[in-house]
Design goal:
The protein is α+β, with helices and mostly antiparallel strands. The chain is built from four helices and ten strands, in the order E-H-E-E-H-E-E-H-E-E-E-E-H-E. It is 29% helix and 26% strand.
Amino acid sequence: MGDHRNMLLDLTVDEARAEEHVVHVRDWFRRTGWSKADPEAYDESYEMYPADSFGERSATLFAGNGVYSFVPLHGIYTGGGDSYGPRCRECGTEYDLDEAVQLAIAWSDSHVEPVLSCTSCSRQEPMGDWEILSSLTVASFAVIIDVHDRSLDPDRLIAALREELRSQLGGRWVHMVENM
């Protein structure tokens, strides 16, 4: 597998609050031991944003080193070259990628999240609630996770961190993988 980044995006944060959310979330990461201050920490793909090294809590779930970058950037986040359309969480049917891209552009511009309807089971959910691991969504705040050892699987770390972010800080945290 090529270079990639795991992304945890909070879909509840708007552009106006994104900068203050960086301070709040980064402080929480440090207080809870998920990250630690490190002046040498940076991700070459996100070097213009504040970053911390993995902390003790991260080390209990992931044997390697890594960096968390805190990104207050409104826009469309995608899975990169291997992107697919959002998938229905009920039946797994993939939404048309071209149509999803157009809906994401409109969402980014209007700040109104579209509701998608599954063509197979008729389930209706906001676009960000579909399975979007390697798809696309719109957000104004992201935590980008760069694991330095690509041979290790960060899934346990990501799942535990997302669950704790949801329970401790609230919000609609979703997980995506950006293939670079």
